[in-house]
Every structure is written in structure tokens, then in C-alpha cells.
Design a protein that fits this description.
- The complex is a heterodimer of chains A (194) and B (404).
- Chain A is an alpha/beta fold and 194 residues long.
- Chain A folds into two domains: 2-127, Beta Polymerase, domain 2, CATH 3.30.460; 151-194, no CATH class.
- Chain A has four helices and seven strands, in the order αββαββββαβα.
- Chain A has helices spanning 2-13, 37-46, 111-122, 167-171, and strands at residues 18-24, 27-32, 54-62, 70-78, 83-91, 100-102, 125-127.
- A five-stranded mixed beta sheet of chain A has the order 1-2-5-4-3. Chain A has a two-stranded parallel sheet with strand order 6-7.
- Chain B is an alpha+beta fold.
- Chain B has one domain: Cytochrome-c3 Hydrogenase, chain B, CATH 1.10.645.
- Chain B has 17 helices and eight strands.
- Chain B has a three-stranded antiparallel beta sheet. In chain B, strands 6-7-8 form a three-stranded antiparallel beta sheet. In chain B, strands 4-5 form a two-stranded antiparallel ribbon.
- Classes of the chains: A alpha/beta (194), B alpha+beta (404).
- The interface between A and B is large, with 45 and 53 residues.
Amino acid sequence: MAKKLLDILQERFGASVILETHSHVGDDTAVIAPEHWREVALFLRDDPRCKMSMLVDLCGVDRFDQLPRLEVVAHLHSIELNHRLRIKTRIGDEACNDAVVASLVPVWAGANWFERETFDMFGIRFDGHPDLRRILLYPEFVGHPLRKDYPATKTQPLVPYREGDDVLGKLAPFREDEGLSFGRKHLDYVKEDQ
Amino acid sequence: MEPLDLEVDDSSLELPSDPMQLMMGPSHPAMHGTVRIVLDLSGETVLKADVQIGYLHRGFEKSCERGTWNQVFPYVDRCNYSSPMLNNVGYALAVEKLCGLTVPERCQYYRVIMGELARIADHLVCNAAMAMELGAFTPFLWWTRAREMIYDIFEEETGARVTHSFARIGGMADPPNKHFKDAVRAALPKVLAANAEGVSLLQNNRIFMDRTMGVSPISAADAIALSWTGPCLRSAGVPYDVRKASPYLVYDRFDFDVPVGTTGDNYDRFMVRVEEITQSARIIEQALDQMPDDGPVNVDDPRFVFPDKDDVYTTIEATIRHFKIVMEGVPVPKGEAYGYTEAANGELGFYIVSDGSGTPYRVRIRPPSFAIVGGLSKLITGQMIPDIIPTFGSLNMIGGECDH
């Protein structure tokens, strides 16, 4: 069923829009060119063969060592036809500049908070979003914490810590490389540069 | 008497008519959960509501990228502290989907029963809190007692009342106790009786009905567009349940109904949860009958499951196995998967990305509460301030998962 979805997409849009498709462990994925992001979403919602009535989830992924660096991943579900599809698009250069993609709020109203969260965590801007503010973090927060180059041990308190013995050491969730499995320790972005 | 020295003209006697701004929360006595609602009011009518969340943000997703795959379990426990077992199972299923593992049948039944017990506990708490905020304290106490019976079973099985961290990738931490089935069979009728008793106090209660019926309704189309799932979506009349639409574990072997509402108002949301408790009990009864008494609980794969403790102390192979699982983590193949289950509040999804190492590259949780609270401002706009309380209660916001 869902494999057919990928065929429908490829037939309708062609290889210049649908950059890549794959089906892994039962999840069908289509990688879409960022400039056609909303157009494809609209098609998926309205086409009688797709009827993707629900945006289940929208999130970001930081592919640190790839270009374009940031991924926007959306999971779609059709209540009527009971099939699912994952669509994603890739944006942003090494420093995450130009990470802009069209907002899906006009297509699914539920995208509002998901896109705000993705903006908050990755700094991806959604063009046409009615109210793109931080949602989980406070407005004074600097940086986007789910990017791989944001150290996990970094703290940004709104109210300064009290003077005293090693308060900071207790506050950080992990020391240096504590809690890391061996498989990840050689990677650059793990090393703290706080 | 001296005349008042005031220059009174006609215009200054008019009452100010600008909307008043009122901050509701972040810790409001009538609302459970830490959330702030910035209200623009005209009298008592809400003109505009800005729901601000994030007070419980603990960096769940960032923390997951630091440990091994199995070390995520304590974190998912704390995402939904009303039904942690469902989160445990949901995350385990997502990783097992990527690994291509299927747990043995006994474990599947075990997960179903534990999950449904957690669902009952979650619904009881939600309904109890909603009733209490409307002034009905008695059901709250009764239902908390009923929940305690379920927690007793959890404590017996897992050693913890709330944060179990009991599921593992490829199985469960321990097999069921010898008296597991008897304990569940003994507790379930008491829980159902307490539930029915509490419902009988509220169902036809004039005050309760006045404050919930027709308050904050939502249409099916709006609920779907807002990405709602779970009891809140079903109360609007959409019979969508992940357990029915795409059955996981052994849910396709049970006979149960998906209760739906008609108008999607607070009363419907309450009643859908009430009915789901009964349906969960039906599932548990069938699962208890079908669950095998013996057999393995964990998959037969040494890369994922700890060896016997006796072997670890006596043989070098088992010691190495143990060491590798602890230090390197379980080998999750490179790739991505989206695993979704029906948690107490709706579809709980985990989108996981692995780079082939023992540490998650990305663990994304799709919390049902997040999408549902995202629709709160739409629900309460145009309503009165007192209507916010039952509306918020019926949505069952769980701060831990909503704020990640």
C-alpha cells in the first residue's frame, strides 16, 4: 500500500522533486527538495489516493557530517486509508545557515507547535509560520541545544548560580565523557569545548 | 461640607473596555501541571489564549544521545509518570523494530497486560484529577485507592511503584512473578468496582454535567488537523486506535471495542476514558487466559540480552558478553525507524536514528500530550475562565512528555 504511495509521488513530481525514496523496516520515506516541501505536502493531503489527513510528527535531525546538514522529518498518516509515510527534506550548510523551509501550518494546523519546537531545538526557520517563537526554552536562551555542536554539559541559567563550592560540577548532567559508550568517543562533536 | 474638587465629564465615567491580560499559571492551584496560559479577557470571556509550556523541559532528547540504547529507559519512564510502563514498551518496540527483533510470545502478553494496567491507572488519575478540580473530592480518593492496587502489582513485579525502567531491548528485565496472574485477577474486579462507583457519582451529577457538557467541543476534522490522537480524538467521533488500526504485540488476538464520543466536549472525553478502562480490563482478562505460564521472556540473541549471572561469574565468554552490553551498548543497526504505540493519551511515537554504534544518534519522542495541548488555546477561546479548568483537566496534559 504505502509502497504505492512512493510510486504515486514519483510519477506526479519526478526525480527533480523527489530526490530519493527508500523503504526500511516497513517505513516508507521520500526525500523532497526543500523548495517543493509545502507543495508535496498539499498534494499528499488532498490527493484521493493519499489522503494524508494527519501530520503525526515533525522534527529535526542534525546530520553533522553531511551536507546539507539539517533534516526536517515529518511523519504522515491517513486515518481513512490507514497508511503512513515519512517525508523529509535537507537544508542548511555547515554552520546551519540558510536553514529555511516552508511552513506546513497552512496544510495541517497541528504543525504549529511541532515547527516551533524544531525551530527552538535546531534553529530551522519555517517560512510562513504564524508565530515562530521558542516553545520549550526561554526567549533569552542562546543557541539551539539539539545541534550536535551544542555541548550536553553546557548550562545557561536565567538566574546566576550562588557562590560556593563546586555547585557547577554538581549541576551538569554528565562529566566530560561520562555515560558515553566506547563507540562514540572518537567523534569530534562529542568533545566538549565549553 | 466642601464640594468634591473633581472635574467630571461624561466620557470619564465609562468603564474601561480594553481587554485585560491575566496570567494563569505556571503554578495555578486549580490546574495540575506546570503550564502558563496568558489570557486576554473581556469580562470573563477569553478573547485570546497563549499557552506557554516548557517548565518541565529536561533535555530528554539530548540526554538520550549520551548513553547507550538501554540507558534511555529511565528517561522514558519520566516522560509520562502516570503510565511509565506504556512508554517503556513503546520505546522498546521502536528499537526492536529497527533491530528486527520479535520478543517471545510470553513477553508479548506480559507487555500487553502491564501496559493495559498502566493505561487503567493513567485514565483513573486523569478522571480523578478532572473531577477534583470541579469540586468532587470523593471520586479522587476512591480512584487513587484503585490506582494504588495497580501500583501494588507493579511494585510486586518491578520493584518500583512508578518509575519502573522495566522493559529492555529484546525483552523485560525479569520474567513475571509466580503469582502474577493471581494478583492481577484479584485486583482487577476491585479496580473496576471502584471505577464504576466513582462514575456513578459523576455521570448524572448536575454540577458535573453543567460544567462539562457542551464545554469546549471540537469537531472531528479539527481534531485530526491538530494531530490529536487517543481518547481526545476518539471523543470527537473518530474511531482511531493504534491497537486496532495497526496492531502491535498481540493486540490482534483480543476482542475489544474502541469507544467514541459524539461532540468532543469535556464530558465525552471523560466518558471515553471511563469506557476505555472497561475495555482495557477486557483485554487483560483475555490476555491472562492466553498467556503461557512458561517459556522464555527475552529474545534468544546474545548481543542484546544479558547472560545468566551464574555464567558471568564463572565463564569468560559470558563475562565478555556482559561487559560488551554494558560498556558498548546493544548493537542497533544503522538506519532509522518510527515505532508507534497507543499510549494512554494517544499515539506515542519514537523516531530513532542509529549510526550503528551503541549510542543513539537521535531519539525523538512524539508525545501525545504535546499535540493535544497545542490545541488548547483553540478550545478555550470564546469560553469563560471557569471552563478552562475542566477543559485542561480533560485533555490530561502530562508535563513530562509535553515538555520533553
